[in-house]
Amino acid sequence: MKQIKIEGQHILSGTINISGAKNSAVALVPASLLSDEEVKIDNIPNISDIDALNEILEYLGATVKREGTLMIIDSRNIENKEIPEEISKKLRASYYFMAALLGKYKKVEMYFPGGCSIGARPIDQTLKTFKALGAKIKEEGNKYLVTAEKLVGTTVQLDMPSVGATINTLLVAVKAEGITVLKNAAKEPEIVSVATFLNNMGAKIIGAGTSKITIEGVKHLGSCFTEVIPDRIEAGTYLIAGALIGKNLTIKNIIPEHISSLIEKLKEMGIEMSIGKDYITVSKSDNLKPIKVKTLGYPGFPTDLQQPLTALLTQIDGESILEETIYENRFQNVKYLNKMGSDIIINDRTIKVKGKTELKGTTVEATDLRAGACMVLAGLIAKGETTITEIKHVLRGYENIIGKLQNVGAKITLEEI
Ligand code: EPU
Questions:
Q1: Which among 163, 217, 223, 372 has the fewest CB atoms less than 10 Å away?
Q2: Last residue of a domain, one of 227, 251, 282
Q3: Helix 369-381, helix 232-245: angle, nearest 10
Q4: CA–CA separation, 60 and 82 (whole Å)
């Protein structure tokens, strides 16, 4: 088991380079299966979620080469067989294989996907799309057998703009006959990157990044090259670190537009930043003002930055209010922040953060990926030593978090216990 130890209150300065986006890469890798030729994806982050997808690809018989951040995938010889539950439950993104295999072979057998335990996370919208396109679904416990004599394009409206269901619709509809129109689609940058990747292979997708996507099915998808977009959540996490304890901390290789909702909230608090084309430099500012935040789909404030932001809210005089509208169980970090000395009250989907409070180092748990990121941020400003257990959740999504923080002055170490 791995844990992190942080000696708090060391100033962060220098540059942190942001890696490729987890939530884009974890969709591009399964999407590569749809190609009838070799595909190359660069700027792949070195995180354990990618290793799990790599394992699935190889289990199915694909040839995968990884050279630094480049991944070369040849799935010409894959076998469409059931993906064992112990692999599929390692991560949420395993269900992109469900859609890609269904699109390619009109049949797939797979278990319910895993992922962070932050809510129920049903997959009904994905199944609804599969059915609308002509698939039949047999459920046996938590296993799904999905088959289609043929997949035929149609109009589907999602109940909510789900990122996963939007990507899954793209992955199936690219190989369906005729035109699919997806309404109430999610608009996250990760969706644009999957659509661009598929279009580079020869797909005909228009409207990705808006709430209406039109997909004209094609018979053949060929070779292509793409680069994973910068991770907006990793960028946002380090930007918050800079606001907490930075002195000219530069977050580089980013698309500032992708985190404009966070930037606006930081400005509202009174944090000064210098924003360039692909970087932001931030320092800790005094006399911050409390804020109200509500998580929403893109371009609203991302749920994935809600927990990291909470660490910063503890350092503002007055009462900040944060409402989580996407997941019903994404406040598991609060218990541990309060253990460190914060004053946060949970009321259903809303928290009230009363500040400013002094945080003190103690032992806390990374209950999920972004809760873990919140604990790291809290540890960076806490007095004394913070130990964070269950760190595997953090390593699923943040490439080299220890090295990146050490490079800018943090006293942070990873221990095997
Ligand atoms: N939902 C349904 N039915 C569905 C699909 C979603 O009710 O069929 C609900 C979910 O329960 C949730 C909401 O709709 O309440 C949004 O879920 P969405 O499908 O958009 O999320 P996801 O695709 O499961 C991805 C990211 C999450 C990120 C969300 C929202 C990946 C692998 N995961 O999840 O990332 O929070 O979009 O942006 O891309 C993370 O990185 O820490 C993380 C959890």
A1: 223
A2: 227
A3: 20
A4: 9
**8 A C-beta contact, residue 405 and residue 412:** yes
The residues, any chain, with a CB within 8 Å of residue 105's CB and separated by 6 or more, are 80
Strand extents, DSSP E, 217-349:
224-227, 246-252, 273-275, 279-282, 292-294, 318-323, 343-347
CB atoms within 10 A of CB 413: 12
Q: Which domain holds residue 398?
A: 2-19+230-416
Distance from residue 168's CA to the centre of ligand 1 (Å): 12
Q: Are strands 273-275 and 279-282 parallel, antiparallel or unpaired?
A: antiparallel
- CATH at 112: 3.65.10.10
Q: Give me the active site residues, please.
A: 116
* Residue pointed to by tokens 């072979």: 105
Residue of minimum CA distance from atom 25 in ligand 1:
163
In terms of average pLDDT, the best of 80-89, 117-126, 321-330 is: 321-330
pTM over 0.90, yes/no: yes
